[in-house]
Amino acid sequence: MDVQNAYSTLMEQGYVVVRGAVPSHLCDEVNRDVSRFKDRNPKAVQRNMDDHARLYRVANLHLAVDALTRLLTDNRAIDVCDRFFGEPTALYTSLYYERGSEQDLHRDTPVFATNPAERYLGVWVALDDVDDDNGPLQVVAGSHALAPIDVAAMRRAVFGDGPIAAQSPEGWTAYQAAVRAQCDQAGLSAVAVHVAKGDVIIWHPQLFHGGAPHRSERSRRSLVMHVTPKGTPVGHQDVFFEPSKARTKAGWGYYRRGSRDIARFRHVDFGHEYTVRTWWLRKP
């Protein structure tokens, strides 16, 4: 991998695919450990699994399945993130999937409002081969370079003088609709990204992206890592729409894996429906 070429593609297109960034044998090891975790924690995972026993949108599973942290430490694509940040990349949070997210096209910035701004990247690691049948990532190339949305005006229109919740459906919908309108006006449309096990997709914080329909019974195991430099404060919509509320320091500590730092939290979140304390979960 040529880091400079990959970085240039990221900045020009808003995303880059780094082929074979994670060794295939490591993907197999991670998949085995997650399978063992599911077997050892039936009560924790049961409510989250679909009819095919596939997990969906599990936040920070790496805190319970430590092998997942190797997708940060043993991943050649992270060198591109280091180049983007100009300093070492750390793991803030993650999302683990066994089927496609099927999420509408969106930008991440309202829920990853860093201080300073845009000190964030999405890093998507394929743990299975992914094509049109099993929910590929969709990207709108060039959407990261569109003119900035007037967030202050949107804040007044949506919230008036009222408070802004960290997770506001009204704010989220208004912002994503405005970005979609910009993409339509510019003639930009989404394309599906096909990847093989071990490939990594990195996307710019301003990239418009989402998940295509998952049409088959095949799994689509993947880990999305939300990465920042160590110590970067991350806010949500309350900060995104009112930057004066941004913290100057991260409100969490870190632990070390290899040469990388990982934010330390105490819960694994299953589909944003329920959480389980890490110490109640049996490790693989």
TrEMBL record:
Coiled coil: none annotated. Its cofactor is Fe(2+). Keywords: Dioxygenase, Oxidoreductase. InterPro entries: Phytyl_CoA_dOase-like (IPR008775). The keyword Oxidoreductase applies. Pfam families: PhyH. It comes from the Bacteria. One of its GO terms (molecular function) is dioxygenase activity. PANTHER family: ECTOINE DIOXYGENASE, PHYTANOYL-COA DIOXYGENASE DOMAIN CONTAINING 1. This is Phytanoyl-CoA dioxygenase family protein.
